[in-house]
Prior knowledge:
Elements: E1 13-14, H1 17-24, E2 34-38, H2 46-49, E3 55-59, H3 63-72, E4 80-81, H4 91-94, E5 99-104, H5 110-119, E6 126-132, H6 133-140, H7 150-158, E7 159-167, E8 172-173, E9 180-187, H8 197-209, H9 215-218, H10 226-229, H11 243-256
Parallel strand pairs: 2-3, 2-5, 3-4, 5-6
Antiparallel strand pairs: 1-8, 6-9, 7-9
Helix pairs in contact: 5-7, 8-11
Amino acid sequence: xxxxxKKHLGQHFLKDESIAKDIxxxxxxxxxxxxxxIGPGMGMLTKYLLKKDIITHVIExxxxxxxxxxxxxxxxxxxxxxxxxxxxxxxxxxxxxQFAIIGNFPYNISTQIVFRTLENRHQIxxxxxxxxxxxxxxxxxxxxSKKYGILSxxxxxxxxVEYLFTVxxxxxxxxxxxxxxxxxxARKENYSLPVDExxxxxxxxxxxxxxxxMLRGSLKSFNLSDKLREDTIFAMRPEQLSVLAFFELxxxxxxxxNRD
Length: 260
C-alpha cells in the first residue's frame, strides 16, 4: 500500500500520522548512510524520514506523485527516482553503497520487493515495511505453522525477521478489506549460505510446491539415491523443517550428487 489513492491498484490513503511515524522509526539506521523509500506517494512517510540523520531517496512510478514530491519537498527533488523498483539496476543509483529499504508496499508486488531485496542483500542490511498482514506473518513465521513456507525460509536464510505491529483498516481512506502488518528485516552477520544457493532455492521451492507430501515424495524429481531416500529427514513435511534443517537437507542432496 502506498499513501496515495489509486483504487485500480488496490492502494489507499494512510491518514494516521502516528502510524507513519512508527513505520519511519522502525529502522535502526545503523551501518548505512542511505535509505530508499519505495512508493512514497504524497510523502506521508517521507516527511518523517527526512527529519532523520540519513540520506533519503525515493522511487516512484506515478507521475502525479512525483510532481507533488518535487513541488513540496525541494531538498528531496534530486533524489527522486521516477522508475519501477523491480526493474532498476541498483548499482546505477547506489553503486556499491549499503542502504536500507522502507515503504508502505502495494500488496500486488510486495513479495516481489522482498525477493528483489534478497537478490541484493549484500547491499541491504536493513528493511522495514508494511504489507498485507497475511504476507507479513508468512515472512516472519517459524516452522510448524501452515503460514510457514517458501517466503519464510528464503527470507530467514539471510535476515532476522521481526513482526512489529498490526495496522487496522480504519487508518486508511478508503479502508481496505484486510489488516496490514509492519515487519523489519535485519541482515544476518553471516548471510552467505553454507550450501549451494541455487540448489537451496530449488529444494525449498520444490518441497513447498507439494507441501502436504513427505519430502521423499515432493523431492522425487531430484532422483535421490535409495540410501538417501531412507534418511529420516525425508519422512518429514516441509513445514516441519527449520531454516537450518533446510540447509542440512540441501547439503544431503548436494552430497548425493543428484541435482536434476
